[in-house]
Amino acid sequence: MTHMSRSLRWCATAALSVAFAACDSAPSDPDSAAPSPKIGAQTALLGAVPVTNDVTGQVYDAIAVEGGITWDDARAAAEALSAGECTGYLVSITSTEENDFIFASFPEVVPLIGNGYWLGAYQDPEASAPDADWSWVSGEEFGDFTDWAPGTPDDGGVFGDEDAAHFVASGGGPFGGSGVDWNDLNRSETAVGYVVEFDGSCSADELDELLIDVMLKRGNGPRSINRRSRGKVAAVVLSVADSGAGDGFDATAIDPATVTLGDGSDPDVPVAANRHGKLMAHWPDLNEDGLRDALFHFNTWELVDTGDVTDETTELVLRGLTTDGAAFTGSDEVVVK
Questions:
Q1: Fold (topology level) of 51-199
Q2: Is 118 a residue whose pLDDT tops 90?
């Protein structure tokens, strides 16, 4: 696996790396036992954390693709997002509740510019009518629920046959409404992203693996934060190996009770707690170098309520102390939606 890196601004006695990701559901509880301190070397960025529907247990993610992506390439990319029993595919939507959950979790599926994100509906190329012979890539029954924009599917594009589905704003256009509909589009055209659904029960370890896969497919642009989210923002600190000159950093030595995220001036937001009151901090090996890093989660609504995240926010700052009292701080770029 190839790891991505980029320059980030730091103020610390040792070099270290941080990245942010956004999600809309509570992550898995941290490990019950604290790991032994170790140090690593790689720098990596995370993409959006997969979102779990607490009612159905199904897991989703929305993947933005710089420069756009065709439907066939999106299908292949979604199916490549797998970890153990947690396997990905372009989303199949079979109820109003599922459709609404996806749009509430990922408002970016309907962008202001460009075709909305791909979903997993496609048509037999030999179909005799625009609304005939549609299927879901998952094999689920198509037609029990649909949310086509008025007058679609219609094969009405400039490229002729339109045999794949993507999201559009209610009313059929990028400025046509505040909700989400579906539209048919030629599979050779590009959309700005795709929604992936994960089959099976995804474990905490598998979700960690998916974070890395998503990171690699999203590229290394600024992380997106949705101000309307009631979910979490994730911050990662990667351990850095000591070359022998005292330039290493052990991320597992961070004291989670001291860690905050925000605009760098009080009040910043502390690490969130799970329903049992335990801080959402754990130390997986995120960059697969055999060594452990730090992963923290923060409540998005707290960042908004404290004023740390506004429409003008372009950067978030992570601060804290190690268990021996050494202070560290780091910042990363964000885009607020």
A1: Mannose-Binding Protein A; Chain A (3.10.100)
A2: yes
